[in-house]
Design goal:
2 copies of one chain form a homodimer. By secondary structure, chain A is an alpha+beta fold. Chain A contains 6 helices and 3 strands; from the N terminus they run H-H-E-H-H-E-E-H-H. Chain A has one domain: Winged helix-like DNA-binding domain superfamily/Winged helix DNA-binding domain (Arc Repressor Mutant, subunit A, Orthogonal Bundle). Chain A is 65% helix and 13% strand. The first copy, chain A, binds a DNA duplex through helix 3 and helix 4.
Amino acid sequence: MTYEAVIIALADPTRRRIFESLRVKSKTVGELAEEQPVSRPAVSQHLKVLKNAELVRVEAKGNRRIYSMEKKGLESLRRYLDTFWSDALEAYGQEIFRRIENDEL
Amino acid sequence: MTYEAVIIALADPTRRRIFESLRVKSKTVGELAEEQPVSRPAVSQHLKVLKNAELVRVEAKGNRRIYSMEKKGLESLRRYLDTFWSDALEAYGQEIFRRIENDEL
DNA sequence: CAGCTTCGTAAGTCATAACTTACCGTAAGC
DNA sequence: GCTTACGGTAAGTTATGACTTACGAAGCTG
């Protein structure tokens, strides 16, 4: 059920901006904080959530922490979405809907 | 930017349960409320959010409103996710990451 | 028409999570 | 070794959003 963590992580606009910023290139916490309209500790907290959702990974480089994009979280969310395109469920749902329309239910 | 509404809509567990419940068959507000551990007005409010995200559609049937699943919202979210699998961005990001690793940046 | 059902909205409460400042540990530079 | 830079965590505040009850509109029922 890790896709829940991914959805929650991406639901916050600041967190989405941080995540999408890493799409271009990997950055330190300070670099990310400069781009964002919030304080550095706030960015740290957001990165914690993103890491928990496996949307970013950290690389310690001496004094700094270099954050980069991680695809694993996105993949689990995509798998969740894909389950909604099942043909069987689709057909069943449509049939029920038709019956309701026709007052057969 | 409608994918934002979709992510926000799916971020709430109650809303996710309502949405997934409609996967099986279309239902009235009352039916949905019976399944959920919250009041009927709460369900109404959640349905409003889901509708705004194009995750459900309504069908007025006399006194009742029959809610059913709508794929449009899911599709826009999927398109958003797919943009992260662009090979060009991937290659660029990896190259930058390599340079940082090697202190070339 | 009177009463009952269905459901949306308004208003207010409460829990949560997004923020702030303050502080601490750790690594780097002089 | 002392100072400075980087970043994580704690504690407290504030904003948001998920809930509740109360109410009203619109439609079936007898």
